[in-house]
Amino acid sequence: MRIKAQEIIRGIYQIGGGNLTAGEDAAIFLIDYTGELVMIDCGAGRSSGLIVRNLKTLGLNPRNISSLILTHCHIDHVGSAPFFRKQYGTKIIIHELDAEPLEKGDSIRTAANWYDTTFPPTAIDRKLRGEEEILKFGTEELHCLHTPGHTPGSISLYLDRDGKRILFGQDIHGPFHKSFRSNIEHWKLSMHKLLRMDADILCEGHFGIFEPKEKVREYIERYLEEYD
Known about the structure:
single chain; alpha/beta; Metallo-beta-lactamase, Chain A; six-stranded mixed sheet; 13 strands
């Protein structure tokens, strides 16, 4: 049974993943910046219509999605990117270190081969560089942190709204594979970076929403202990 898209905090929604779209989709989040919409990840590619439906049930117009920010290059996070770019002119944003697999349609590095599918070579509109970039939408900011480990170009994002810090930390749990070019030591440093963010709410890619901040910290520390 499918559930309805949920509002996490004012103007921030989960619109895909799990029972919202398909089980193969990682979580898909949406931020409403007073009409301008920013989507974080977009599922494995077979649920594009369901994502659009979920947006419309919230009274939102998919044509207002100005940017799609991809947290890393794996198919369960990037699959519908070509659809949104073609259908609505949505700009695709990813860290430069994870851009090449999308541009080349690399079935190994996108992990498309894990899902018995392919990913077409897709142009990237903006490549994030360095340790942090701050994107501005209206009067608000969205911080993009380079958090390598799961993949070389993995990122996490955060913003402050209504007195709370919301962290989008996809695939904190891994997994780690040679074919992904994973690096456990880089990942550990990234997790300590996320702990320093002291977030009130964690929007994770596969295991749900964690709050308050004590549960956020507990979740991240659990994986640090597991891979110690």
